[in-house]
Amino acid sequence: MRFQQLAIAAAFTMVALPVFAEEAPSEPVVETTATVETEAVETASVPTETTLGPVGVDQNGHRGRVHTVTNDDTLWDISDAYLGTPWVWPSVWEDNDAIENPHLIYPGDRVWISPYSMRKVTEAEAEALISGVYEAPAAIEDPDLMADFGPRPTYRFTELETTGFVNVDALKGASSIVDSVEHERTLFSDHTEVLIGYGENDVAVGDQFEIFRTGDEVTDPDSEELVGYVIVQLGWLEVTEVHPDASRAIIRSSVREIERGDHILPRRIRTLDLEIQPTPDVDGMVMHSPNRRLEVASNDVVYLNRGSNDGLAAGSPLEVYRPMAPARDSAQGTDKALPDEIVAKLVVLEAHADTAVAVISHTRREVARGDHFRGAETLRP
Predict the structure, then answer these.
(1) Model confidence, pTM
(2) What is the 3-state secondary structure (H, E, C) of 232-250?
């Protein structure tokens, strides 16, 4: 089903957070479909206007609004009204385990929307958000909760388009390039027409997919359980014709040669400039370094065993640290606890539910698999 496909996209996608809309758009929001399911992205002809819901503050001090779903609402037009673009919702949509099926929305449902997340909430949680039970930090006590606080600092990573990770569950939902319209071709590039394994129940004309190849396995340092795979980005394609079992597509862009059997998943919207987010309250471990190297340094990418469920998002600042053993103060005759050694600073590139990919922005020492990390107050070394 397409909502399953787009749910995968939410676990696979990383985009820059947009400016939170101050007011509803002056132009009517174009209704995407009469169905209020997350799979809805086709354009329909019935215009609607989304009225912004009441302001609230969540447990992290993030300001947002609680929207009550109406008959004509979709996540597409809700995202457009509140976040300034309809394309962002798959990357910020979060599942709520307390909701039986968080991938469907119905009239009367409550949806919490902030620049950091969109998710269905229960009526009790919606009331808590609106009533101020979750108290905002002093720095954001301004009653106009949707105010623009000015630009956040950014971190530029120019190799973002070649970096990626796919977890085990997301890979199970992937398809692949099964053939080419030009059967004699073995290697594909820009403008090549190909056939993919998604059919009429999975895709629509215009859907875009990343093309990738799996690389190193990523395992948890403690359990050695397989978590997912480093991926090699190859390019992206767009669906042009849909048929019962397979669909025709055209490769719009390629950065490497593409072959039959290469995987596809919904395309991510990415930016080279990452807005630095508030310091997350998190502690975890480095799971993997590129090319199975034992140690890595500045501008290398590492894979972490914490994700969006632990408060990480694209742009989260982190630091790698190593505890230091107590030292003896010979003059006082006592052991002194020493501060942790800060080994490196990280910036999260993309966050999945329980894992994340980060780049080393600064380092004093080489980072190794099994090193611990936590939220950082600054990216300075």
Answers:
(1) 0.56
(2) EEEEEEEEEEECCCCEEEE
